[in-house]
Design a protein that fits this description.
By secondary structure, the chain is an alpha/beta fold. It has 2 domains: 2-178 and 239-345, LarA, N-terminal domain (Rossmann fold); 184-232, Alpha-Beta Plaits. Helices cover 34% and strands 19% of the residues. It has helices spanning 17-28, 54-66, 87-96, 101-104, 136-139, 161-168, 172-179, 196-200, 221-225, 237-248, 250-255, 295-310, 317-321, 326-335; strands at residues 2-7, 36-40, 70-75, 108-110, 119-123, 131-135, 143-149, 151-153, 157-159, 185-186, 206-207, 210-211, 231-232, 260-266, 288-292, 343-345. The strands form 5 sheets. It has an 8-stranded mixed beta sheet with strand order 4-3-2-7-14-15-1-16, sandwiched between helices. Helix 7 (172-179) packs antiparallel against helix 10.
Length: 346
Amino acid sequence: MEIIFKDAKITRPQDNQPEQIKKLFPHISPVKKGDIVAIKIHPGEYGNTTHVRPVIVRTVVDLVHQAGGLPFVTDTTTLYGGMKLNGVDLINCSSMNGFNQISMNAPFIVADGLRGGEGKRVQIDGDELDSITIASAVAESDSMIIISHGKGHPASGFGGAVKHLGMGCLDRAGKIRVHEVGKPSIDPEKCILCGECVKVCPWDAIMPPDIDHSKCSGELSCAEACQQEAIIPPPDATDKMQKRLGEAALGPIKALKGKIGYINWVYDVTPGCDCFNFSGERFVEDIGILAGNDPVAIDCATIDLINEKVKPEGRSINTIWGVNPGIHLEAAEKIGCGTRKYKLIR
Protein backbone atom coordinates (compact mmCIF):
# COMPACT_ATOMS: atom_id res chain seq x y z
CA MET A 1 0.00 0.00 0.00
CA GLU A 2 1.43 3.38 -1.05
CA ILE A 3 1.68 6.11 1.59
CA ILE A 4 2.74 9.58 0.43
CA PHE A 5 5.09 11.50 2.72
CA LYS A 6 6.00 15.19 2.82
CA ASP A 7 8.96 15.84 5.12
CA ALA A 8 8.73 18.63 7.69
CA LYS A 9 12.24 19.75 6.70
CA ILE A 10 10.99 21.10 3.39
CA THR A 11 11.32 24.85 3.89
CA ARG A 12 10.50 26.48 0.55
CA PRO A 13 7.61 28.97 0.80
CA GLN A 14 5.74 27.12 -1.95
CA ASP A 15 5.91 23.92 0.14
CA ASN A 16 4.20 25.17 3.30
CA GLN A 17 1.75 22.78 4.96
CA PRO A 18 -1.42 23.94 3.13
CA GLU A 19 0.40 23.66 -0.21
CA GLN A 20 1.62 20.19 0.67
CA ILE A 21 -1.93 19.09 1.46
CA LYS A 22 -3.14 20.50 -1.86
CA LYS A 23 -0.60 18.24 -3.60
CA LEU A 24 -1.50 15.19 -1.49
CA PHE A 25 -5.26 15.48 -1.63
CA PRO A 26 -5.93 14.34 -5.24
CA HIS A 27 -4.09 11.07 -4.54
CA ILE A 28 -6.26 10.10 -1.56
CA SER A 29 -9.58 11.86 -2.02
CA PRO A 30 -12.71 9.65 -2.15
CA VAL A 31 -14.96 12.66 -2.78
CA LYS A 32 -17.45 12.59 -5.63
CA LYS A 33 -19.54 15.51 -6.83
CA GLY A 34 -22.59 15.85 -4.60
CA ASP A 35 -21.10 13.90 -1.68
CA ILE A 36 -21.85 14.98 1.87
CA VAL A 37 -18.34 14.70 3.29
CA ALA A 38 -17.41 14.23 6.95
CA ILE A 39 -14.04 15.72 7.86
CA LYS A 40 -13.17 13.95 11.11
CA ILE A 41 -10.79 15.77 13.43
CA HIS A 42 -9.89 15.97 17.10
CA PRO A 43 -10.24 19.66 18.02
CA GLY A 44 -8.34 19.19 21.27
CA GLU A 45 -9.53 19.48 24.83
CA TYR A 46 -9.61 23.03 26.19
CA GLY A 47 -6.08 23.84 27.39
CA ASN A 48 -4.41 21.65 24.76
CA THR A 49 -2.44 23.67 22.19
CA THR A 50 -0.69 21.02 20.06
CA HIS A 51 -3.70 19.61 18.18
CA VAL A 52 -4.08 19.90 14.40
CA ARG A 53 -4.31 23.57 13.42
CA PRO A 54 -7.53 25.05 11.97
CA VAL A 55 -5.66 26.17 8.84
CA ILE A 56 -5.00 22.50 7.97
CA VAL A 57 -8.68 21.69 8.31
CA ARG A 58 -9.65 24.77 6.28
CA THR A 59 -7.38 23.64 3.46
CA VAL A 60 -9.10 20.24 3.31
CA VAL A 61 -12.56 21.85 3.49
CA ASP A 62 -11.75 24.10 0.53
CA LEU A 63 -10.44 21.13 -1.48
CA VAL A 64 -13.67 19.21 -0.79
CA HIS A 65 -15.66 22.20 -2.00
CA GLN A 66 -13.54 22.32 -5.16
CA ALA A 67 -14.23 18.62 -5.75
CA GLY A 68 -17.97 19.28 -5.64
CA GLY A 69 -18.55 17.92 -2.14
CA LEU A 70 -20.52 19.37 0.74
CA PRO A 71 -18.17 19.22 3.74
CA PHE A 72 -18.81 19.37 7.46
CA VAL A 73 -16.22 19.09 10.23
CA THR A 74 -17.00 16.65 13.00
CA ASP A 75 -16.03 14.89 16.20
CA THR A 76 -17.88 12.87 18.85
CA THR A 77 -18.60 13.23 22.54
CA THR A 78 -16.34 11.54 25.09
CA LEU A 79 -16.57 9.18 28.06
CA TYR A 80 -14.25 11.26 30.22
CA GLY A 81 -15.22 14.49 31.96
CA GLY A 82 -14.14 17.74 30.36
CA MET A 83 -15.35 20.03 27.58
CA LYS A 84 -16.31 17.24 25.17
CA LEU A 85 -18.69 15.21 27.33
CA ASN A 86 -21.79 16.53 25.56
CA GLY A 87 -22.58 18.20 22.26
CA VAL A 88 -22.92 21.73 23.62
CA ASP A 89 -19.57 21.66 25.40
CA LEU A 90 -17.89 19.99 22.41
CA ILE A 91 -19.01 22.76 20.03
CA ASN A 92 -17.97 25.44 22.54
CA CYS A 93 -14.58 23.79 23.13
CA SER A 94 -13.96 23.42 19.40
CA SER A 95 -14.77 27.07 18.81
CA MET A 96 -12.50 28.17 21.66
CA ASN A 97 -9.68 26.19 20.04
CA GLY A 98 -10.29 27.93 16.71
CA PHE A 99 -12.56 25.45 14.91
CA ASN A 100 -15.68 27.31 13.80
CA GLN A 101 -17.65 28.23 10.69
CA ILE A 102 -15.56 31.33 9.98
CA SER A 103 -12.16 29.68 10.34
CA MET A 104 -13.03 26.44 8.53
CA ASN A 105 -15.63 27.49 5.94
CA ALA A 106 -17.79 24.58 7.05
CA PRO A 107 -20.10 23.84 9.99
CA PHE A 108 -18.96 21.84 12.99
CA ILE A 109 -21.41 18.99 13.67
CA VAL A 110 -21.37 16.68 16.69
CA ALA A 111 -21.54 13.30 14.98
CA ASP A 112 -23.22 11.35 17.79
CA GLY A 113 -25.71 13.96 18.97
CA LEU A 114 -26.31 15.99 22.09
CA ARG A 115 -25.50 13.25 24.61
CA GLY A 116 -23.66 10.75 22.43
CA GLY A 117 -26.66 8.51 21.85
CA GLU A 118 -27.13 8.86 18.10
CA GLY A 119 -25.51 5.88 16.38
CA LYS A 120 -25.89 3.04 13.92
CA ARG A 121 -24.98 -0.59 14.57
CA VAL A 122 -22.58 -2.21 12.10
CA GLN A 123 -21.82 -5.94 12.01
CA ILE A 124 -18.06 -6.57 12.07
CA ASP A 125 -17.71 -10.20 13.29
CA GLY A 126 -14.43 -9.78 15.16
CA ASP A 127 -12.83 -12.01 17.77
CA GLU A 128 -13.70 -9.50 20.50
CA LEU A 129 -16.69 -7.64 19.01
CA ASP A 130 -19.46 -9.02 16.82
CA SER A 131 -20.81 -5.54 16.09
CA ILE A 132 -20.12 -1.90 16.95
CA THR A 133 -22.18 1.29 16.98
CA ILE A 134 -20.80 4.26 15.08
CA ALA A 135 -21.85 7.91 15.19
CA SER A 136 -24.87 8.57 12.98
CA ALA A 137 -23.42 11.57 11.12
CA VAL A 138 -20.44 9.43 10.13
CA ALA A 139 -22.64 6.51 9.07
CA GLU A 140 -24.88 8.73 6.97
CA SER A 141 -22.07 10.54 5.14
CA ASP A 142 -21.17 9.67 1.56
CA SER A 143 -17.41 9.87 2.15
CA MET A 144 -14.95 11.01 4.79
CA ILE A 145 -11.51 12.53 5.27
CA ILE A 146 -9.82 11.76 8.59
CA ILE A 147 -7.17 14.23 9.72
CA SER A 148 -5.17 12.72 12.57
CA HIS A 149 -2.52 14.24 14.79
CA GLY A 150 0.15 11.57 15.15
CA LYS A 151 1.19 11.43 18.82
CA GLY A 152 1.49 9.16 21.80
CA HIS A 153 -1.44 7.78 23.79
CA PRO A 154 -1.45 6.22 27.28
CA ALA A 155 -3.99 3.51 26.40
CA SER A 156 -3.06 2.64 22.81
CA GLY A 157 0.59 3.71 22.63
CA PHE A 158 -0.08 5.78 19.52
CA GLY A 159 -3.05 7.79 18.31
CA GLY A 160 -3.61 8.10 14.57
CA ALA A 161 -6.03 7.05 11.85
CA VAL A 162 -7.07 3.72 13.39
CA LYS A 163 -7.74 5.42 16.73
CA HIS A 164 -10.01 7.94 14.97
CA LEU A 165 -11.93 5.09 13.35
CA GLY A 166 -12.12 2.70 16.28
CA MET A 167 -12.84 5.32 18.94
CA GLY A 168 -13.41 8.82 17.57
CA CYS A 169 -16.04 7.70 15.04
CA LEU A 170 -18.08 5.72 17.58
CA ASP A 171 -21.11 6.84 19.52
CA ARG A 172 -21.14 6.60 23.32
CA ALA A 173 -22.37 2.99 23.37
CA GLY A 174 -19.61 2.00 20.95
CA LYS A 175 -16.94 3.69 23.04
CA ILE A 176 -18.18 1.85 26.12
CA ARG A 177 -17.98 -1.49 24.25
CA VAL A 178 -14.30 -0.81 23.58
CA HIS A 179 -13.52 0.46 27.09
CA GLU A 180 -15.64 -1.84 29.25
CA VAL A 181 -12.78 -4.34 29.57
CA GLY A 182 -11.04 -1.72 31.73
CA LYS A 183 -13.57 -1.53 34.58
CA PRO A 184 -11.33 -1.30 37.67
CA SER A 185 -11.53 -2.15 41.34
CA ILE A 186 -10.31 -0.23 44.40
CA ASP A 187 -7.65 -1.56 46.75
CA PRO A 188 -9.11 -0.70 50.19
CA GLU A 189 -5.67 -0.84 51.81
CA LYS A 190 -4.36 1.94 49.56
CA CYS A 191 -7.53 4.05 49.34
CA ILE A 192 -7.49 7.06 51.69
CA LEU A 193 -11.03 8.19 50.74
CA CYS A 194 -9.72 11.47 49.30
CA GLY A 195 -12.50 11.60 46.71
CA GLU A 196 -10.33 12.61 43.74
CA CYS A 197 -11.67 9.69 41.72
CA VAL A 198 -15.24 10.77 42.45
CA LYS A 199 -14.54 14.24 41.06
CA VAL A 200 -13.36 12.99 37.66
CA CYS A 201 -15.98 10.27 37.13
CA PRO A 202 -18.89 11.65 35.08
CA TRP A 203 -20.94 8.49 35.61
CA ASP A 204 -21.40 8.60 39.42
CA ALA A 205 -19.96 5.09 39.48
CA ILE A 206 -17.53 5.50 42.38
CA MET A 207 -18.37 5.30 46.07
CA PRO A 208 -14.96 4.70 47.67
CA PRO A 209 -13.87 2.07 48.36
CA ASP A 210 -16.41 0.57 45.89
CA ILE A 211 -17.09 0.97 42.16
CA ASP A 212 -20.51 0.28 40.65
CA HIS A 213 -19.63 -1.60 37.46
CA SER A 214 -23.17 -1.22 36.13
CA LYS A 215 -22.47 2.52 35.80
CA CYS A 216 -18.71 2.43 35.07
CA SER A 217 -17.62 2.94 31.44
CA GLY A 218 -14.07 1.66 31.98
CA GLU A 219 -12.31 4.71 30.57
CA LEU A 220 -10.04 4.93 33.63
CA SER A 221 -9.62 8.66 34.20
CA CYS A 222 -10.23 7.71 37.83
CA ALA A 223 -7.04 5.63 37.87
CA GLU A 224 -5.07 8.54 36.45
CA ALA A 225 -6.46 10.84 39.13
CA CYS A 226 -5.62 8.53 42.04
CA GLN A 227 -2.32 9.57 43.61
CA GLN A 228 -2.36 6.51 45.87
CA GLU A 229 -2.53 4.05 42.95
CA ALA A 230 -5.50 2.49 44.69
CA ILE A 231 -7.62 2.07 41.57
CA ILE A 232 -6.59 -1.14 39.84
CA PRO A 233 -7.62 -1.96 36.25
CA PRO A 234 -7.78 -5.64 35.20
CA PRO A 235 -4.27 -6.86 34.31
CA ASP A 236 -5.17 -7.50 30.66
CA ALA A 237 -7.21 -4.31 30.17
CA THR A 238 -4.78 -2.51 27.86
CA ASP A 239 -4.32 -5.43 25.49
CA LYS A 240 -8.05 -6.21 25.34
CA MET A 241 -8.96 -2.57 24.82
CA GLN A 242 -6.48 -2.29 21.96
CA LYS A 243 -7.85 -5.42 20.28
CA ARG A 244 -11.36 -4.00 20.49
CA LEU A 245 -10.13 -0.65 19.21
CA GLY A 246 -8.59 -2.27 16.15
CA GLU A 247 -11.70 -4.31 15.43
CA ALA A 248 -14.06 -1.38 15.95
CA ALA A 249 -12.18 0.55 13.25
CA LEU A 250 -13.91 -1.66 10.68
CA GLY A 251 -17.30 -0.16 11.56
CA PRO A 252 -16.87 3.23 9.85
CA ILE A 253 -15.01 1.61 6.95
CA LYS A 254 -17.93 -0.75 6.26
CA ALA A 255 -20.55 1.98 6.72
CA LEU A 256 -18.85 4.24 4.16
CA LYS A 257 -17.89 1.34 1.86
CA GLY A 258 -14.23 2.30 2.12
CA LYS A 259 -14.74 5.85 0.82
CA ILE A 260 -12.28 7.35 3.31
CA GLY A 261 -9.02 9.25 2.81
CA TYR A 262 -6.46 9.63 5.60
CA ILE A 263 -4.06 12.44 6.47
CA ASN A 264 -1.64 12.08 9.40
CA TRP A 265 -0.31 15.44 10.58
CA VAL A 266 2.85 14.59 12.53
CA TYR A 267 3.98 17.82 14.15
CA ASP A 268 4.22 18.64 17.87
CA VAL A 269 4.46 14.92 18.66
CA THR A 270 3.66 14.83 22.36
CA PRO A 271 3.48 11.79 24.67
CA GLY A 272 -0.17 12.44 25.49
CA CYS A 273 -3.37 12.58 23.48
CA ASP A 274 -5.04 15.83 22.42
CA CYS A 275 -7.77 14.88 24.92
CA PHE A 276 -5.34 15.99 27.66
CA ASN A 277 -6.20 19.51 28.87
CA PHE A 278 -2.53 20.48 28.54
CA SER A 279 0.24 19.86 26.03
CA GLY A 280 3.35 18.07 27.18
CA GLU A 281 6.79 18.64 25.72
CA ARG A 282 7.21 16.95 22.34
CA PHE A 283 9.49 13.90 22.44
CA VAL A 284 10.65 13.94 18.83
CA GLU A 285 11.29 16.58 16.19
CA ASP A 286 8.56 17.33 13.67
CA ILE A 287 8.10 14.54 11.09
CA GLY A 288 5.80 15.92 8.38
CA ILE A 289 2.53 14.97 6.69
CA LEU A 290 1.49 11.52 5.45
CA ALA A 291 -1.50 10.65 3.28
CA GLY A 292 -3.06 7.43 2.01
CA ASN A 293 -6.19 5.32 1.68
CA ASP A 294 -5.23 2.63 4.20
CA PRO A 295 -5.49 3.50 7.92
CA VAL A 296 -3.31 0.65 9.09
CA ALA A 297 -0.55 1.37 6.59
CA ILE A 298 -0.50 5.11 7.30
CA ASP A 299 -0.24 4.54 11.05
CA CYS A 300 2.52 1.95 10.61
CA ALA A 301 4.44 4.36 8.37
CA THR A 302 3.98 7.17 10.89
CA ILE A 303 5.22 5.04 13.79
CA ASP A 304 8.24 3.88 11.79
CA LEU A 305 9.18 7.48 10.95
CA ILE A 306 8.88 8.45 14.62
CA ASN A 307 10.96 5.47 15.69
CA GLU A 308 13.69 6.37 13.19
CA LYS A 309 14.06 9.72 14.95
CA VAL A 310 14.18 8.40 18.53
CA LYS A 311 16.10 5.16 17.89
CA PRO A 312 19.55 6.77 18.43
CA GLU A 313 18.34 7.71 21.91
CA GLY A 314 17.46 4.08 22.63
CA ARG A 315 13.73 4.79 22.57
CA SER A 316 10.70 3.93 20.48
CA ILE A 317 7.01 4.78 20.50
CA ASN A 318 6.55 1.67 22.69
CA THR A 319 8.68 3.11 25.49
CA ILE A 320 6.73 6.35 25.90
CA TRP A 321 3.93 4.68 27.93
CA GLY A 322 5.15 1.09 27.93
CA VAL A 323 2.30 0.27 25.52
CA ASN A 324 2.77 -1.39 22.13
CA PRO A 325 0.44 0.12 19.49
CA GLY A 326 1.15 -2.85 17.27
CA ILE A 327 -1.58 -4.69 19.18
CA HIS A 328 -4.41 -2.55 17.82
CA LEU A 329 -2.82 -2.29 14.37
CA GLU A 330 -2.53 -6.09 14.17
CA ALA A 331 -6.17 -6.43 15.22
CA ALA A 332 -7.23 -3.88 12.62
CA GLU A 333 -5.29 -5.71 9.91
CA LYS A 334 -6.69 -9.09 10.93
CA ILE A 335 -10.30 -7.94 10.70
CA GLY A 336 -9.78 -6.33 7.29
CA CYS A 337 -9.18 -2.61 7.88
CA GLY A 338 -5.92 -2.58 5.91
CA THR A 339 -2.36 -3.88 5.84
CA ARG A 340 0.75 -3.21 7.90
CA LYS A 341 2.84 -3.45 4.71
CA TYR A 342 3.42 -0.17 2.89
CA LYS A 343 5.60 1.66 0.41
CA LEU A 344 6.59 5.19 1.39
CA ILE A 345 6.46 7.65 -1.52
CA ARG A 346 8.51 10.73 -0.80
